[in-house]
């Protein structure tokens, strides 16, 4: 292994190893669960833990730039005022944006 690995890379590697250990069949544990009549519950918990570990964010991920809180793309529409979200364009401010820049007659 290289000495110049970042905490981001090592954390991702650790998560991958944990997932591999969860995927790997543990026959002794499953046998115990079968004898204690909780094998189905054990496998259900295992699946939940796998989902949780897969979705865990890496705490070493650099912060997003200001104003970029998530990767959700908001659909927009072009108005005389510029690009605005469809929610604004069709909501309570719809007439305001449609009449942007027009003089009252």
Summarize the structure.
With 105 residues, this protein is mostly helical. The protein is built from five helices and two strands.
The count of helical stretches stands at 5
Roughly what is the average pLDDT, rounded to an integer? 84
Low-confidence stretches: none
Structural class: mainly alpha
- Write out the strand line-up for the largest beta sheet, numbering strands in chain order: 1-2
Helix percent band: 40-55%
The fraction of residues in strands falls at 5-15%
Number of self-contained structural domains = 2
CA-atom Rg in angstroms: 26 Å
Number of strands: 2
What is the distance, rounded to the nearest whole angstrom, between the alpha carbons of the first and last residues? 74 Å
What does this molecule look like?
The structure is a single chain. A hairpin with a 2-residue loop joins β1 (76-79) and β2 (82-85). The protein has 5 helices and 2 strands, in the order αααββαα. It has a two-stranded antiparallel sheet with strand order 1-2. The protein has 105 residues and is mainly alpha-helical. The mean pLDDT is 84. It folds into 2 domains: 7-55; 73-105, no CATH class. α1 (7-23) packs antiparallel against α3. The N and C termini lie far apart (74 Å).
Feature tags:
105 residues, mainly alpha, two-stranded antiparallel sheet, 5 helices
Helices and strands in order:
Elements: H1 7-23, H2 27-35, H3 39-55, E1 76-79, E2 82-85, H4 86-90, H5 94-98
Antiparallel strand pairs: 1-2
